[in-house]
Design brief:
This protein is an alpha/beta fold. 38% of the residues lie in helices and 16% in strands. The chain has a 7-stranded mixed β-sheet with strand order 4-1-6-5-7-8-9, with helices on both faces. A two-stranded antiparallel ribbon has the order 2-3. A hairpin with a 6-residue loop joins strand 2 and strand 3. Helix 2 packs across helix 7 and helix 5 packs parallel to helix 6. The chain starts with a strand and ends with a helix.
Amino acid sequence: MKFLHLPFAALLGVALTACNSGPTAEQPAASATPVATAPAAAKTATKRLLFFGNSLTAGYGVEPEEAFAGLIGHKIDSLKLPYEVINAGLSGETTAGGRSRVGWILKQPVDVFVLELGANDGLRGLPLSATRENLQGIVDTVRRRSPGAQIVLAGMQIPPNMGQTYSADFKAVFQEVAAKNHLVLIPFLLEGVGGHPDLNQADGIHPTPAGHRIVARTVWATLGPLLK
């Protein structure tokens, strides 16, 4: 297995990330150099698994190998599954930002595409119609660039800061997009982690390494059967 981490946030500066109490700014990583954990000579991957998301995917505040995407990569490695794992998480990303960069990310085709975006839209109170449209646009681009790719959509929920109706409708967006496009849905990415202070960093926003381990188990429960 080959694991690549692409910290694009260094190119874009300080950005908003998902949080429980409202919008907040964060300082992204300083390096913009992809990092491979396996030498080229040892490359055995025949398929490509790409994680596309925001700071949750990027692993803000933890080491790349401690973030859930890195943990999934190590799991794949231990099972000797023929996948190259790519972390294309960008801190502060919204669905609009993701839609604008997904074509660049997919210059090479992928076999499995895990889409984790939307939390920043919800915390900013952006129109849900735009979030829905942007998620659909990303799905359409993936299917155009990689027609055979399996797409996994990570569901997200937000606290009722914007009102109970908005929060409920926000949750439903992911269910609607998944159903319309026949996607595999992870009901709630942060199940068992969101709202638990002991599993989040001091900012109350991003999972600790222990929190990421729980997220990785949640993701693997849905993703694992697709890779075997």
